[in-house]
Amino acid sequence: MKGLPLFPTTTVGSFPKPPYLLEARRKYLRQQISKEELRHLEEQATREWIQRQEELGLDIFVDGEQYRGDMVAFFADEMEGFQIAGLVRSYGNRYYPKPVVTGPVGRKRPITVEWFRFAQQIASRPVKGMLTGPYTIAEWSFNEYYPTRRALVLELARAIREEAQDLVRAGARFVQIDEPAIHTRPEEDFELAREAMEIVTRDLGAYTITHVCYGDVAKIYPAMLRLPVNQIDLALANEDYALLEVFKKHPFTRDIGLGVIDVHSHRVETVEEVVAGIRRSLAVFEPKQVYISPDCGLKTRTIEETTAKLRVMVEAARIVRAQFA
């Protein structure tokens, strides 16, 4: 994209919360501090992550999602038509609050726009607008209102489109719509997920990205190339770039968000390992297609691990970039 170097570096969205913010969130839930006090600390943590991205030299920033909990429950809690039920196990010992659709869904007000503006005002580089996609919100919620999944997904798509339009009006050049659930049941309704994405991104006026993390991506390839986005962001490092063999069977016709950092490992990769991964990808992708990122959000790592991993990622991208200069 114009204004960016070859192999632009970015992240998927979430960063770990500092201990003071985690404690503040616990106190807020126990009604020991006010919403205003919590907001002040969320802003402080956001500033710190913008500053770290500046120091690391990333090319496209994120706000770090310091004001969010679970990626679906956050949006459900901010929208009409949802109630939040109990905790549901996600994986390992991680749980998330399960949203329940109990009425017509829609936005009460802009959800992420104020945080985008806050981050962009203090950042020297473009900040991505970050949204959870309509298909994933529907898939990870109980539907007790709409007669069909299709009706729910398309109504959510219209609401998320409104949010995306507001982000673009606020100055977002990049809008990411996360759809980690898109490969859950492709035989049944991949076309529904594609249709919902088209509602969100049609004539949006920004560079659009969808993040699809882990799962059986091969089940939706090459069909996922019909998703109406500029870039598909995928996890490759976690499975030693095995997906490259899948992509060799059919030309990859979108830009690729190349996941080169394993966010499920505490180990910090070496620069040489990441350089090797990027070079392997160039047997499949043209250099101008490749954006460099971690496999997924980094909120489960420590601040120190996250910083070290991103430093390696940025240095590796610079090394490969220099070879094409």
Characterise the protein shown here.
With about 325 residues, the chain is an alpha/beta fold. It has helices at about 20-30, 35-55, 70-80, 115-120, 135-140, 150-170, 185-200, 245, 270-280, 305-325; strands at about 80-90, 95-105, 130, 140-145, 175-180, 205-210, 230-235, 255-260, 290-295. Strands 3-5-6-7-8-9 form a 6-stranded parallel beta sheet. The protein has a 3-stranded mixed beta sheet with strand order 1-2-4. The protein is globular and about 55 Å long.
How does the helix and strand content classify structurally? Answer: alpha/beta
- Rg over CA atoms, rounded to whole Å, is 19 Å
**H/E element order:** HHHEEHEHEHEHEEHEHEH
Helical proportion? 40-55%
Low-confidence blocks of residues: none
Structure summary, number of beta strands: 9
Terminal residue distance: 17 Å
* Beta strand %: 15-25%
Large-scale geometry = globular
Largest sheet: 6 strands, parallel
Identify the strand order in the major beta sheet: 3-5-6-7-8-9
- Give the overall pLDDT as a whole number: 95
